[in-house]
């Protein structure tokens, strides 16, 4: 009987893009109606790969600005950055001692991000899912909205919670915490578009770390940049099909139709009802216009907020104090349970 609570995070590790927006932030906004929500700028995750310190400070503020500009309410809910609440690091250490090395070695994101030279990846990159479990469980969060790429990490959070509950079951009961200290968190992979692909390669996910700026639409892109990137997006030469089945084997077309549907709040079939049989030369300008109308105001509000860093820092400081007030007693309980 854990009270419902939502936690999720976004890394301040580069350009926030359309994938982050449709795969994560749109859901963060919607969940505010029904849940208590905690949204975290996960700066400690960002440094698992090298970050320029000055850039990092700016990016922390930019993700915060994106949250607020997209409609997250930092007064009703909690918005903060991870490094300001030390429970995340403390609990991650305990989880490093609960999780198994083999579990970490199986993570596909580690394999992707570490590349060929795995011995030279940071130890933090390998242990990343353990910190992510700490982020979530420090608040005993029951629901985590994420994109599809985070599914495997979420399963690991569940495994860690389960193993902690089992390994310490006697101590948990003896300290009056019943039969489970941590909830088994549910992933919410439900948004309008759980997997947005690169505009340059329909088989790769749109990502902050893609070296090509034309691969993604950044939330800070202005109207011209958005329109141009969509115009230059890779496509095949055929007209759009009139049925969703016709998108099979056409990853770029499928991706663009999916983006249109997500931005318009309709289905791919409804998009094809309008655009089936038409060429990309007609579809792309329509998609560009739609993207500009949805993202333009958010980018503008982000730029406005970024002009007052002190205001953003105040939002983060207030959020950190409220997050700490929830997480600290959870960590105190962990210490008792572990025997510290
Ligand atoms: P990135 O993968 O670009 O570095 P993060 O790891 O900070 O971004 O992810 C932030 C959130 O955005 C996560 O919930 C993640 O699942 C979601 N997300 C990231 N890329 C995509 C994408 N291409 N499509 C849908 N959701 C995505
Ligand atoms: Na990710």
Automatic annotation (TrEMBL):
- Cell location: Cytoplasm
Annotated motif 'HIGH' region, positions? 12-20
Which domain of life does the protein's organism represent? Bacteria
Q: Which GO terms describe its biological process?
A: tryptophanyl-tRNA aminoacylation
- Which top class of enzyme applies to this chain? ligase
Q: What are the protein's GO molecular function terms?
A: ATP binding; tryptophan-tRNA ligase activity
What keywords appear on the UniProt entry? Aminoacyl-tRNA synthetase, ATP-binding, Cytoplasm, Ligase, Nucleotide-binding, Protein biosynthesis
- Listed binding positions for L-tryptophan are 135
Pfam family of the protein (one): tRNA-synt_1b
Reported EC number(s) for this entry are 6.1.1.2
Q: Which PANTHER family match?
A: TRYPTOPHAN--TRNA LIGASE, MITOCHONDRIAL (PTHR43766)
- Name assigned to this protein: Tryptophan--tRNA ligase
Gene behind this chain?
A: trpS
């Amino acid at each position: 009987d854990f009270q419902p609570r939502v936690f999720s995070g976004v890394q301040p590790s580069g350009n926030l893009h359309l994938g982050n927006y449709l795969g994560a932030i749109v859901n963060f906004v919607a969940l505010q109606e029904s849940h208590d929500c905690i949204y975290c700028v996960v700066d400690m995750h960002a440094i698992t790969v090298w970050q320029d310190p000055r850039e990092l400070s700016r990016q922390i503020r930019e993700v915060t600005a994106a949250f607020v500009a997209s409609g997250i309410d930092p007064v009703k809910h909690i918005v903060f950055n991870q490094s300001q609440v030390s429970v995340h690091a403390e609990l991650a250490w305990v989880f490093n001692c609960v999780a198994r090395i083999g579990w970490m070695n199986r993570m596909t994101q580690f394999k992707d991000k570490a590349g060929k030279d795995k011995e030279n990846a940071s130890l933090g990159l390998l242990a990343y899912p353990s910190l992510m479990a700490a982020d979530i469980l420090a608040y005993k969060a029951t629901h985590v909205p994420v994109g599809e790429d985070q599914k495997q990490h979420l399963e690991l959070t569940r495994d860690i919670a389960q193993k902690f509950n089992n390994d310490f079951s006697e101590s948990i009961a003896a300290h009056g915490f019943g039969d489970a200290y941590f909830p088994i968190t549910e992933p919410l992979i439900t948004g309008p578009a759980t997997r947005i692909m690169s505009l340059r390669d329909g088989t790769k996910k749109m990502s902050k770390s893609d070296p090509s700026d034309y691969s993604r639409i950044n939330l800070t892109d202005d109207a011209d940049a958005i329109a141009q990137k969509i115009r230059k997006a890779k496509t095949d030469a055929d007209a759009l099909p009139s049925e969703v089945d016709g998108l099979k084997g056409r990853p770029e077309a499928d991706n663009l139709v999916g983006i249109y549907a997500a931005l318009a709040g309709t289905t791919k079939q409804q998009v094809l009802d309008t655009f089936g049989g038409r060429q990309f030369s007609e579809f792309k300008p329509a998609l560009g216009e739609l993207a500009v109308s949805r993202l333009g105001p958010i980018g503008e509000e982000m730029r406005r907020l970024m002009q007052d860093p002190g205001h953003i820092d105040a939002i983060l400081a207030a959020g950190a104090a409220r997050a700490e007030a929830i997480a600290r007693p959870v960590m105190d309980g962990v210490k008792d349970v572990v025997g510290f």
